[in-house]
Design a protein that fits this description.
Blueprint: H1 4-17, E1 24-25, H2 30-50, H3 60-82, H4 85-98, H5 103-115, H6 119-132, H7 137-149, H8 153-166, H9 171-183, H10 187-200, H11 205-218, H12 221-234, E2 242-243
Helix pairs in contact: 1-2, 3-4, 4-5, 5-6, 5-7, 6-7, 7-8, 7-9, 8-9, 9-10, 9-11, 10-11, 11-12
Length: 246
């Protein structure tokens, strides 16, 4: 069995290797991987010192798979940015094949499935991303978007709440939660969330537009026009779904 120190080292390595982001967010990870592999090497040394014939939990082959998986995800992000969604999907599939515990690869693949209209497949990938890393705020936020589009506003609200609990500075999650509150008729709560999103990201055009709609519904047309003007000045943004580089 592993001692507490060895388990802590391994958990540190895995946490550095599996972080998260939302609107959806793509994750890339050479530096994160380097840090994780360094910790894994320390972990192996600790195990070696405790055993005459150590049973290596993550050997050289496993480390190579982790590195290759990260490279596939990085390439998938680039392909997606070029519009090659099929190529990106194939790379995420390969990354997951090499590293079935890669939370962010599931998150990113879920976004592609969502873009292709496969809501069930997207939800399944987000579920797996969260199962592998319960602190993956991006996956919660992205799953919330899928639930919202399916009409499950309560489920979406719960996921946005969880994303914000994990990352209180997650502007996209505040914006998305504000939309749910607005649709439920809680205009003051919605405006508070849009305010917070804009405080965190002063160039967040979608949040300005959404706040403008809420103000318009409240009868504050001057405030609405000011927000719409700001949104127009900042320019259009892509939908609030988030891919994670690695």
């Amino acid at each position: 069995m592993l001692g507490t120190k060895e388990r802590d080292l391994l958990n540190q390595a895995l946490s550095k290797y599996r972080p998260g982001r939302s609107e959806p967010i793509l994750i890339g990870g050479a530096e994160r991987l380097k840090s994780a592999l360094q910790l894994m090497n320390v972990y192996r040394l600790r195990v070696d010192r405790r055993r005459k014939r150590p049973q290596v939990f993550l050997g050289a082959g496993s480390a190579a798979n982790l590195q290759n998986a990260a490279t596939y995800v990085d390439r998938a992000v680039s392909k997606e940015k070029k519009g090659d969604l099929s190529g990106a999907m194939a790379d995420y599939d390969q990354a997951i094949k090499l590293n079935p515990n890669y939370s962010n690869a599931y998150n990113n693949r879920g976004i592609l499935k969502q873009m292709k209209g496969d809501s069930s497949g997207a939800t399944a990938d987000y579920n797996q991303a969260i199962k592998l890393n319960p602190k993956n705020a991006l996956a919660y936020c992205n799953r919330g978007i899928t639930e919202e589009r399916k009409g499950d506003l309560n489920g979406a609200m719960g996921d946005y709440d969880q994303a914000i609990k994990i990352n209180p500075n997650y502007a996209i999650a505040y914006n998305n939660r504000g939309i749910i509150k607005r649709n439920k008729g809680d205009l003051n709560g919605a405006i508070a969330d849009f305010d917070r999103a804009i405080t965190l990201n002063a160039k967040y055009a979608n949040a300005y537009r959404n706040r403008g709609v809420a103000k318009q519904k409240k009868g504050d047309n001057d405030g609405a026009i000011a927000d719409f003007n700001r949104a127009i000045k900042l320019g259009p943004q892509r939908a609030d779904v988030v891919n994670t580089p690695n």
